[in-house]
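Researcher: I'd like a candidate sequence for this fold, 122 residues long. If you have to choose between options at a position, lean toward the conservative one.
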């Protein structure tokens, strides 16, 4: 469920459980830089050098766009990029057991913060 800013578990989640993929508008590198010349799209996930997913438009994205950042020591969700095959995707999994009402968070990574020119919220 979504509560304001952030994504929270509605039911208990087992460690290793698949949660969802990141969805949004699929862009190539040229389209991404045309939209975000500074490569600073807050909802853009980079899958390959020429494949990006832009979740900025909530009507074209899914609940994954609501997950907040957490440093690795506090993150309870991990992503894995599937870069091979026709169904390239960014999959999210539970890093550990997650309780009801616990916020789902993952480490956005240093490259995300560098692109935005910001320091991560710790």
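Model: Candidate sequence:
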């Amino acid at each position: 469920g979504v509560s304001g800013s952030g994504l929270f578990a509605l039911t208990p989640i087992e460690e290793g459980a698949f949660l969802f993929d990141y969805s949004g508008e699929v862009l190539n590198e040229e389209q991404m830089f045309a939209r975000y010349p500074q490569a600073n799209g807050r909802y853009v996930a980079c899958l390959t050098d020429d494949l990006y997913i832009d979740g900025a438009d909530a009507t074209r994205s899914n609940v994954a766009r609501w997950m907040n950042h957490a440093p690795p020591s506090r993150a309870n969700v991990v992503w894995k990029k599937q870069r091979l095959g026709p169904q390239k995707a960014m999959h999210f999994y539970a890093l550990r057991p997650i309780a009801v009402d616990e916020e789902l968070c993952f480490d956005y990574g240093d490259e995300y913060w560098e692109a935005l020119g910001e320091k991560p919220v710790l």
